[in-house]
Amino acid sequence: MRSNRTVWGQALLDHGYSDGNCTHLYASAHFRGEVALLESIDEKRHAMECMMRHLDSDPEAWRFNPERLERTAMGRIDIEYMTGKKSEEVTL
Question: Are 59 and 38 in contact (CB under 8 A)?
Answer without folding.
Answer: no
